[in-house]
Amino acid sequence: MKNLNYFEVDYQSVVIHNFTFQSFKRTPLKQLNINGHLRVIEIDAFAPLELLSSLIIPNQNFLKLSKTLPALHVFQNRQMNELDLSNNFKNYGEYVISADLFAYIGNICVKRLSLGWNGIRRIDANAFQKMKYKHCLESLNLNHNDFDYHQDLIVLYFNFFINIKRIDISEISSRSIENIREQNTNGTRRLDHRVILNTRSDWSIRLPSSLEFLNASFIIGRNNLINSITFKGITGLKIIDFTYSSFDDCNYTINGLQNVLILNVSHFKCGVLNPYLLQSAVNLEQLIMQSSSLSIGLKDDHHSKFLHGLKRLQYIDFSRNAFEDRFRTSTFKSQLDSVQSLILEGNLFTSVPLNLEDFNRLSFLKHQK
Predict the structure, then answer these.
(1) Which residue segment(s) compose the domain that 283 sits in?
(2) Cβ atoms of 48 and 72 closer than 8 Å
(3) How far is CA 193 from CA 66, 140, 240, in A?
(4) Which Gene3D superfamilies does the entry link to (predicted)?
């Protein structure tokens, strides 16, 4: 096994013993995928894997946090490309990761960390801050967890990761986001990177400047009426997915999107629409806005302000918005020299709803019911 780099196993025992991988001690094994029905990983089980850089242990419904994370101590002060512990810890009620437990991860210089689908309700407030190698982390996946109100400021902790490129917090519990909405500047908590809310209707959220991709979709809280959201620090953010993460309406503005190239705001409640909602996204290339009640929201946009100034849009998806009438001549005026793909399927048009001769670069049009 002198050339063994990758090993995937359907492990038949419920315990990974300290001696399980002894025969791998002198191999160049870099990636290990373990499937099976594990219950316990002994504390020195991975010690023989001296060159391992990717450890993937998913879908182990009978594992406990306290019987898994301590076994990572053998990777302390080592560089790893990936640590994936997704969908593992749901059955035994250990839903809180303490700072001490999280330190077994924080003491590894790991690039990609996935803790999704674990039913996690809380990560200790100091856990991220105390990570020894937080500067190593480039990708963090916490999706499909059940964060409770104690995690109201989890978004702020992402600022500790100065080299983070990708964050996925899709389908986390709504309570944590609701609490962010309710914070105000009279709070007593002090953080270097806190959410600044001058009033209940104006939000300011700072994210790491290194961030390139953010998935914050399916975060559905109770209805809120706001005036504006301002994202700060996102100089490198290129892709945002906010699908289903809508407020009570779209009568507000989103500021700070100047560098975003791809934006998905599908399933927003835009029957009431501020025409300047996306005006900060001046470099936007792809806008996906399916099932967002635009047929109602755009009726009052008599001066076609909604897409005005978005001159770099190449791809527009307005599917399933119940459009019936032709678009105003000026609706896509700023996109006549840029748009290449226009997706209008699932609407109620009886004919092509625009003058195709006006579009200089349009090569793909989809508008069937």
Answers:
(1) 249-369
(2) no
(3) 30, 18, 21
(4) Ribonuclease Inhibitor
Q: How high is the pLDDT of residue 342?
A: 98
Average pLDDT over residues 198-206: 75
Residue 260 corresponds to which tokens in the numbers above?
């975003």
| Residue 122 falls inside a structural domain | no
Amino acid occupying residue 211: L
- Backbone phi, then psi, for 179, in 5-degree steps? -70, -35
Reduced to 3 states (helix: H, G, I; strand: E, B; else coil), residue 22 is: helix
Q: The tokens of 147 are what?
A: 């964060």
Structure letter (DSSP) for residue 96: E
Number of domains in the chain: 1
For 54-77, write each residue's pLDDT tens digit.
999 999 988 999 999 999 999 999
Interval 213-218 mean pLDDT? 97
Within a domain: 239: no
Structure tokens of 208? 């790491």
63: in domain: no
Res. 191: pLDDT tops 80: no
d(CA 210, CA 138): 9
Query: Per the domain annotation, does 235 fall within a domain?
Result: no
| Full-model pTM | 0.90
Burial of residue 11, with CB atoms counted within 10 A of its CB: 0-12 exposed, 13-18 middle, 19 or more buried:
middle
**Cα distance between residue 266 and residue 319, in whole Å:** 9
* pLDDT at residue 104, as a whole number: 98
Both tokens assigned to 229: 């959201």
Assigned token pair, 286: 């792809």
SS3 60: coil
The CATH number that applies at residue 281 is 3.80.10.10
225 pLDDT higher than 50: yes
